[in-house]
Specification:
With about 130 residues, the chain is an all-alpha fold. It contains 4 helices and no strands.
């Protein structure tokens, strides 16, 4: 555990997910291509997203219930598991994900303020 203190939280998540994925693959003798794994992870994530949606009273035709914050958090963690699996399978490690996020976040801000070559996002931009 002491070695984990020197690592970032995202890096630890990636390592733990890699260990879980490897264990499941080995114990269940699963052998799929990267493309097949990502398809399966997307389907699993869609399933988890549906479970998340059920936690936030999206059915306007049904009486709402109090939000179960613990269940909501649990679904978000489940989604993260499959997202990180997809990243690993696609060759995206914690550092590359972080760098990609930082660059895209900057670009998204630039789009909102009209500083990007990509048009159609700025609040003050006129639609023609």
């Amino acid at each position: 555990m002491a070695e984990n203190l020197e690592k970032g939280k995202l890096e630890i998540i990636f390592e733990l997910q890699k260990a879980l994925d490897t264990d499941i693959q080995n114990r269940r003798s699963l052998d799929y291509t990267m493309e097949q794994w990502i398809q399966k992870d997307v389907l699993a994530m869609v399933s988890e997203l549906a479970e998340l949606l059920d936690e936030v009273n999206f059915k306007w035709w049904k009486n709402g219930k109090p939000i179960d914050t613990a269940a909501l958090h649990g679904e978000l963690v489940d989604i993260l598991h499959f997202f990180v699996s997809m990243c690993i399978r696609a060759g995206l490690d914690a550092d590359k994900l972080f760098e990609g996020y930082i660059a895209k976040n900057r670009e998204n801000f630039d789009r909102q303020y009209g500083r990007s070559e990509k048009k159609g996002y700025c609040v003050d931009e006129k639609v023609e």
